[in-house]
């Protein structure tokens, strides 16, 4: 019995497929299967029932999963002490929300490459809910998204927060004068926002409840750049990250809705699977804490939002 065999068994048991588990370990599916077969041979018991379309754990396999997790946890702690950062290598695929991708993600990746030169870094940018599911499935090593997570298998550490400002163009297409716009009037205006699967829905729902407002129509879009464009074109009102909003206000493209109470800051977290004790996770967490900065220049703002 070897540590590699135990790793192959554990990740195959806790990921949604053998192929995802193999990617996580940076080996081929055939190598993963070979290690599991070798472990089964040494134990004298089948750990997976392979007669079904997808391999499923046998009762023996289910029984051994928590014990294997414990062994790997101790092994991970040993390696974190024994290995230096320069020894961390392999493939690292992590997830980040679009707001992170448009601001401080390049800074974080640069710091990761400097600290871990032998690591192949593959970022995936998307909506928080999908990113978190990828983490649960074992497709991602860690994530930096709005949080914290409510899933029992995911650990979350708050590392910062994003702030937002309510804005509109100077004159909406409906002919409304926005200088005197009140929160109650949002009921009759289009609201432009990210979809319900995004982290911002948490603070938006709280705000709407506090103001007792129910927008007549919500235009949702998954892209911050498109949201900014729709608001600038006068198709509705909405909120943008504070640094971007203030840059557009300064350039007289948008106006702040000063009668609208501020949204509460949206906390962002570093998330990882509770069963993942690799030195990589600890190092990436340290770098994320040092890198987070939602006031960083944005590509869609032409570098003007400081």
Tell me what the structure shows.
The structure is a single chain. 42% of the residues lie in helices and 20% in strands. The protein is elongated, with a radius of gyration of 23 Å. α8 links the parallel β8 and β9. The strands form three sheets. A five-stranded mixed beta sheet has the order 4-3-5-12-6, with helices on both faces. It has a five-stranded mixed beta sheet with strand order 9-8-10-7-11. Strands 1-2 form a two-stranded antiparallel ribbon. By secondary structure, the chain is α/β, with parallel strands linked by helices. It contains eleven helices and twelve strands. The chain starts with a helix and ends in a 15-residue tail after the last helix. It has helices spanning 3-14, 18-25, 29-43, 59-82, 98-102, 105-115, 128-137, 201-211, 224-232, 242-250, 279-291; strands spanning 48-49, 56-57, 90-97, 119-126, 142-146, 154-162, 164-168, 190-193, 217-220, 237-241, 255-256, 266-273. The mean pLDDT is 87. Pfam families: HTH_1 (PF00126), LysR_substrate (PF03466).
Layout of secondary structure:
Layout (H helix, E strand, L loop, with lengths): L2 H12 L3 H8 L3 H15 L4 E2 L6 E2 L1 H24 L7 E8 H5 L2 H11 L3 E8 L1 H10 L4 E5 L7 E9 L1 E5 L21 E4 L7 H11 L5 E4 L3 H9 L4 E5 H9 L4 E2 L9 E8 L5 H13 L15
Parallel strand pairs: 3-4, 3-5, 8-9, 8-10
Antiparallel strand pairs: 1-2, 5-12, 6-12, 7-10, 7-11
Helix pairs in contact: 1-2, 1-3, 1-4, 2-3, 6-11
Keywords: DNA-binding, Transcription, Transcription regulation
GO molecular function, one term: transcription cis-regulatory region binding
InterPro entries: LysR_HTH_N (IPR000847), LysR_subst-bd (IPR005119), WH-like_DNA-bd_sf (IPR036388), WH_DNA-bd_sf (IPR036390)
């Amino acid at each position: 019995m070897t540590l590699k065999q135990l790793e192959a068994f554990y990740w195959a048991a806790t990921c949604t497929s053998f192929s995802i588990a193999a990617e996580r370990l940076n080996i081929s599916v055939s190598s993963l299967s070979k290690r599991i077969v070798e472990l089964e041979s040494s134990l004298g018991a089948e750990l997976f029932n392979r007669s079904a379309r997808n391999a499923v754990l046998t009762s023996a396999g289910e029984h051994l999963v928590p014990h294997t997790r414990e062994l790997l946890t101790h092994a991970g702690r040993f390696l974190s002490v024994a290995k230096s950062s320069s020894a961390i290598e392999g493939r690292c695929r992590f997830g980040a929300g679009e707001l992170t991708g448009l601001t401080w993600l390049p800074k974080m990746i640069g710091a990761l490459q400097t600290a871990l030169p032998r690591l192949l870094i593959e970022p995936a940018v998307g909506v928080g809910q999908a990113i978190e599911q990828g983490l649960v499935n074992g497709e991602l090593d860690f994530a930096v998204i709005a949080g914290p997570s409510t899933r029992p298998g995911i650990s979350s550490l708050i590392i910062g927060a994003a702030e937002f400002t309510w804005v509109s163009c100077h004159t909406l297409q409906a002919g409304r004068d926005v200088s005197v716009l009140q929160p109650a009037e949002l009921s009759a205006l289009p609201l432009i926002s990210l979809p319900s699967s995004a982290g911002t829905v948490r603070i938006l729902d709280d705000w709407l409840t506090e103001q007792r407002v129910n927008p007549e129509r919500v235009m949702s879009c998954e892209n911050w750049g498109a949201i900014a464009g729709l608001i600038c074109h006068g198709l509705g009102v909405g909120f943008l990250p504070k640094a971007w909003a203030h840059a557009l206000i300064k350039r007289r493209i948008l106006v702040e809705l000063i009668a609208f109470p501020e949204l509460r800051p949206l906390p962002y977290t570093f998330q990882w699977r509770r069963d993942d004790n690799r030195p990589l996770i600890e190092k990436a967490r340290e770098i994320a804490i040092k890198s987070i900065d939602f006031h960083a220049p944005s590509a869609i703002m032409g570098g003007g939002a400081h």
